[in-house]
Amino acid sequence: MDWLSDNAWAAWLGLAAVLGLAELVSLDLVLIMLAVGAVGGAVTAAAGGAVVLQVIVAAVVSVGMLAMVRPNVVRRLHSGPELRVGPQTLIGLQAVTPGDISALAPGRIKVGGEDWLAKPYDEHLIIPAGSTVEVLEIRGATAYVHPIATLEP
């Protein structure tokens, strides 16, 4: 027991290592926060703090990491780009109209390497041939498009 009181920092570091290895199995980001608290206890022990102070520092650091750091890390790990699949991947792409397009006379466009029936998103709009359009919505097998404004010299 005399060795433990003289080398409490080593015991805290051993506990931190065990918690770190256990985190590799659980991947919950809880045990690693407790391991950081154990490192805080090791620093306090190395500085010559009493055992009660070491436990308090380890507990405060652990609770602080669990309350402040873990939620942010989990949020970042679980968030990512929104995955779009199927026809939804065509939204935002541009195409050139080979002929006039209106709500009463739909045309065809080639977008994403595929031929699509196209109607104007605004049903009162007539899109002239040769216009560059952007796909705003896909409903069934119809792409609803809107012309892109161009600056003419």
TrEMBL record:
Q: Which residues cross the membrane?
A: 12-39, 45-69
Q: Which residues form the NfeD-like C-terminal domain?
A: 89-147
Q: Which UniProt keywords apply?
A: Membrane, Transmembrane, Transmembrane helix
**Looking at the record's lineage, which domain of life comes first?**
Bacteria
Protein name as annotated: NfeD family protein
Taxonomic lineage is: Bacteria, Bacillati, Actinomycetota, Actinomycetes, Propionibacteriales
